[in-house]
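Record 1 of the preview.
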Amino acid sequence: MRPQVARSMNSKAWRAAVVAAVSVGCLPAGVQAEPVRSGVYRAAEGPDVASWLEIRDGGRFRYVLSAGALDEQAEGRWQSDGDALLLYTEPKPVPPEFVLKHMAPRTEAPFSLKVSWPDGGGIAGVEFRIGYADGTVTEGYTQEYGWTQSASTPADPVWLELYEPIHRISPRRFDLARGTGSVDITLVPHDIGVVDFTGNRVWTDGDMLFLGRDGGAMRFKRQDVR
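->
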């Protein structure tokens, strides 16, 4: 099953839903932090986010999240840091990457772009910027069948940049030969959807547990064990 790539115009809404705006590592004055207990914690971030974090005895953890078009997970080890824990994904995930598959010379047809999975299936929702020889820039996003420039767009592209922020796929820029008429790009998924926790902090405040991410934190509540 291929990962789903969503239009990144929704990325701001997703981040607002997933990452709560709280102060990382700070507790109200007079509140004593408690050690993080092992167990299963479920996200308390509203109906659009389904997530849980399992802290296991013996220094291991598991994490799963589903939010709209995004599915992500991670597992690895934790280490104590006072009353908090630090999470490390193991093995370290390999990030997805855009790879040039084919570049064809111009014909009478307009310039076209297609981004596909390694099996050839087209990908919708990858954002791009195309720079032209006259200095103009076109922005857009792909469909499964690709993208074709309009007749009014300058006909001599000189560079192409691709990015997909929902899955945090690093932007990549390709220089295009003069006279390029079409470009085929392969998105190699590698470990797409695996979160690279590198010392992310987990701590408690009252009956809530927090997972530090992106300068904020996700909120979780411990599930009762019967």
